[in-house]
Amino acid sequence: MPLLEPDPGALRPDVRPEDASSDRVTDAGAGGTPEPLRSDLLALLGPEKVLTHISDLVRYASDASPYRFLPRVVVLPGTTAEVAAVLAYAREHGRQVVFRAAGTSLNGQAQGEDILVDVRRHWVGVEVLDEGRRARIAPGTTILRANTTLARHGRVLGPDPASAVACTVGGVVANNASGMTAGTTRNSYRTVASLTVVLPTGTVVDTAAPDADERLAAAEPELCAGLLALKREIEDDAALTARIRAKYTLKNTNGYRLDAFLDGTTPVEILRGLMVGSEGTFGFLSEIVFDTLPLDREVLTGLFFFPSLPAAAAAVPLFNEAGALAVELMDGNTLRASVQVEGVPADWAHLPGTTTALLVEFRAPDEERLAAFEAAAEAVLPRLTLVAPVASVTNTFTRDPGTIASYWKARKAFVTAVGGSRPSGTTLITEDFAVPPDRLAEACEALLALQTRHGFDAAVAGHAAHGNLHFLLAFDAGLPSDVARYAAFMDAFCRMTVERFDGSLKAEHATGRNIAPFLELEWGPRATGLMWRTKQLIDPAGVLAPRIILDRDPEAHLRGLKSVPTVEPVADPCIECGFCEPTCPSNDLTTTPRQRIVLRREMMRQPSGSPVEAKLLEAYGHDAVDTCAGDSTCKLACPVGIDTGAMMKAFRHQRHSAREERVATLTAEHFRVVEAAARLAVAAAAKIDDRLLSALTRGLRKVVRPDLMPEWLPAVPGPAKHRLPGTSRLDARAVYYPACVNRIFGGPEGHAGPSLAEAVVAVSARAGKPVWIPRDVRGTCCATIWHSKGYEQADAVMANRIVEAAWGWTGGGQLPLVVDASSCTLGIAHEVVPYLTPANRELHRELTVVDSLVWAAEELLPELEILRTAGSAVVHPTCSMEHLRAVPQLMALAEACAEEVLLPDSARCCGFAGDRGLLHRELTESATAREAAEVTAREWDAYLSANRMCEIGMDHATGRTYRSALLELERATRPGDG
Fold it and tell me: What is the distance between the alpha carbons of residues 778 and 805, in angstroms, rounded to a whole number?
């Protein structure tokens, strides 16, 4: 073990329930994957694609659903051949396979108890076809990622679930998830042109191939014959045919798509339809081709408040008749819970309990058609009974993009915001049903009465235009009485939906595990029997996803309900939705924010000192704490702002010895000396061969804890210039603070122009807004160095020093403080605040801290003349810029300086995180892999960013040379020949 390695026991929970949870992982599971399963799959796929440790199994055991099942092994195949090999192994050894992508499914359909297959990590990509009219998409691609690419072509996918930021295309198709506007005409069943599927037998079918039916007949003759026989049987039963057609006039994802037998004429066409909504029980979707839809960019949106749920529901048909594309309903519980979401008016917390709102949106391709919609919509308003119980309510339509975005942010946060406000320790159930839209008001009244009768106060929201409602229930899965109450409610709810309204028990969330026992209630024995026969025909060995969709156990929905132990307050509201995962730099390397919380909850389920707890703690230090970039972009992605990065920094602090804390504090107190020494070290290193330095530091990292010994990377630049440029306080329009990273490290290799500090001074002067650099900036810092590592005392020393200095430099806040590294801007503007003395908090309130890119884009660019431009530029927005909402300013500067600008679709935090990329280079390499592939697909004239360490990280990742956008702005505006 390396020297100074922290004690894993330092992270053992201090407080936990008196009794271990009944659903904890048992001691027998501590060893992880059992033999021979472990050895067999390692031999089949290799160690990089098989996860066997108990820590890995636990983090994959939970998803956004209320269920938790521990897999025996997790595999990550990267090709269709590897998927086929896993299926062959399962058939030969009597094992079972479940596919999991984003883990955002709400009904347990992505959870398994044997072989769990991760089909996200190696399955990402979008190929635009026919100028955007079609798109070939890999199943692990998020809906947001696909739509970002398609937007450049004025196109969009039909399905638009609220979880688009995280859910994947494969999962959306497998569940036929729809969303706010898809209804029954824009969903996957209607817009998937073709797909490639790996059947349980290993046969690969591309439904778009001209000879697909011939190939399938040759490979699977019994399957082809059986599909055609079932088709004839259904078509010969007029009553059944009519029933199937009627069922799909509503949104319906309960059971298999029996209308595929009516819509398809050949086995391949039938199979294509059946695969949509099959929830991974028929095969693996390795590729999907969508027919895309036009992206109507003219938008009119309104948020209207009603005195009650039935009153709002009664208004829905009026907006539908006016041509609204979306009519979304939010009840009082939903509206009040959403105040946790940034941007939502705080006075919504005081809305009366019965208040309900409709979010109504019209979209059009041009102004003329939007104006026609607007006239029709305005004509509806006098017919409504509207209320304005709090000051922020306007009950008007708007075209303002910011206001519209805030409305949708509140609506899309329904599950997470309400779930985040549930009582601690309770499990969240999300139900989803549809009734004929003209009976929506009646269904709302019935639902309210039912939940009251069973002691629930559910939150209700939904796609009211399509008669589709969602509601959330919270109960304690560890209390038998609560589980019985939930069971009774479900029985009554399902009977009400089917027998009173002839509705769909699952409109868009798919059957999963929790509606499987009620499938026959909705469809009847004849249709349900056909579904069982279809499953037997396609998957005769029963390899895929047992007990999902089809389950004869009447209490299957009560099996595997997960307990939710109370954890650290910052993370306790987490409902494990997974919205945070795509933004996390370590999501393809170790753990994600959700998984860090999931692992912590399992520790809380365990008795202290159990073998499982010991194994989890042993892995948690590296997999959760050390490889967290600490960038807190998870907080931005989480609708309720859970900052798992902050929790990991707190754990780093928890692991520190008293000696480590004292040493860190000394470095802060004597930072002027540390800064000078660091610059000298960089200068000395610049004269030594990179290979020697790399070998030396790698050797030291084997002796000393890696988190204390950086690894040298060739991308590390030489030292900064010793002297900062001379400036004058007289007539200065801002105080310019060169960050310590820019005082230590120099510019890009081979850069012959001015330093960053010289560039900022020059462009500010050219714009007539000169800046002043104080002479005593050396020895000060934004405190991020210590903050990121959890050295709280040192953080406090420097936080107070920089605020006191900045207050003096700016004349008590009379001038703005311009900072030339985005992470340092964030640090001084926000992150130092908790560590300030009361007096210094008052000083901080008087400061105006501005990032240098914002200063340049908003204050300088309008006054500058662009004299020359680069042909092309690619930009890397840093995570700090995301927090500061400064990405538009980076783009504005890049677009001013280059003819063509690309913001890569897969750009995210580079994971370099100050020096974390030197401590764990694999973090940056993993975090930037997809972005680097986009960037290096062609050559660019300029590679631009806004933070020196992130630029070093991107240099390492891409082999290209990144520099500050301010250096490019200086070049573009430099007088003379440039």
Answer: 11
- Confirm if 286 and 80 have CB atoms less than 8 A apart: yes
User: Rounded distance, CA 332 to CA 338, Å?
Assistant: 10
* Structural contact between residues 434 and 467, judged by C-beta atoms closer than 8 angstroms: yes
Gap between the Cα atoms of 48 and 46, Å rounded: 6
466 near 9, Cβ under 8 Å?
no
Is residue 435 exposed (0-12), middle (13-18) or buried (19+ Cβ within 10 Å)? buried
Q: What phi, psi does 241 have (nearest 5°)?
A: -60, -45
> Does 704 have pLDDT greater than 80?
no
Cα separation, 548 vs 558, in Å, equals 13
Strand, coil or helix: 192: strand
Question: Could you give the 3-state DSSP secondary structure of residue 139?
Answer: coil
According to DSSP, the residues that pair with 303 across neighbouring strands are: 359
Reference 97, options 67, 122, 71; nearest CA is 71
Alpha helices in 788-878 (DSSP H): 792-809, 822-826, 838-845, 852-854
**Residue 389, pLDDT above cutoff 60:** yes
Cα–Cα distance measured from residue 719 to residue 77, given in angstroms and rounded to the nearest whole number = 44
Residues 946, 821 contacting (CB under 8 angstroms): yes
Is residue 362 within 8 A of residue 380, CB to CB? The reply is: no
- Tokens 């390692």, located at residue: 42
Q: Which residue has the tokens 């559910």?
A: 458
CB 493 within 8 A of CB 452: no
pLDDT: which is higher, 258 or 422 = 258
What does the alpha-carbon distance between residue 95 and residue 117 come to, in Å, rounded to a whole number? 13
Cα-Cα end-to-end distance for the chain: 55
Q: CA-CA distance, 455 to 486, in Å (whole number)?
A: 9
3-state secondary structure of 623: helix
Residue with tokens 């056909």: 530
CB 778 within 8 A of CB 743: yes
Confidence bin at 66 (pLDDT 50/70/90): very high
Longest dimension (CA), the chain: 92
Tokens of 577: 């939705």
Write down the pLDDT at residue 2: 57
Instruction: Check pLDDT > 60 for residue 1.
Output: no
Strands of the sheet with 134-137, listed across from one edge: 126-129, 134-137, 284-291, 192-198, 204-206
| Spatial distance between the Cα atoms of 898 and 875, rounded to a whole number of angstroms | 11
Digit-coded pLDDT (tens) for 801-817: 999 999 999 999 999 99
Contact 789, 649 (CB under 8 A): yes
Residue (of 432, 466, 455, 460) closest to 444 by Cα position: 460
CB-side neighbour CA atoms (13 Å) of 822: 30
Strand pairing class (397-398; 298-306): antiparallel
For every residue of 791-812, DSSP letters joined together read -HHHHHHHHHHHHHHHHHHTTT
Is the predicted pLDDT of residue 3 greater than 80, yes or no? no
Average pLDDT, the chain: 95
**Confidence label for 978 from pLDDT (cuts 50, 70 and 90):** low
Handedness of CA 470, 471, 474, 480 (dihedral sign): negative
Structure-block tokens of residue 881: 């810029």
**Of 457, 146, 149, 451, residue with least CA distance to 287:** 146
On whether the CB atoms of residues 289 and 193 are closer than 8 A, the answer is yes
Angle at which helices 221-235 and 267-275 cross, to 10°: 80
For the segment 196-234, what is each residue's pLDDT rounded down to a tens digit? 999 999 999 999 999 999 999 999 999 999 999 999 999
* DSSP strands (E only) in 181-282: 192-198, 204-206
Least confident of 524-533, 546-555, 644-653, 716-725: 716-725
Measure the CA–CA gap between 570 and 650, rounded to whole angstroms.
Answer: 10
Contacts for 667 with CB less than 8 Å, ≥ 6 apart: 674, 786, 794
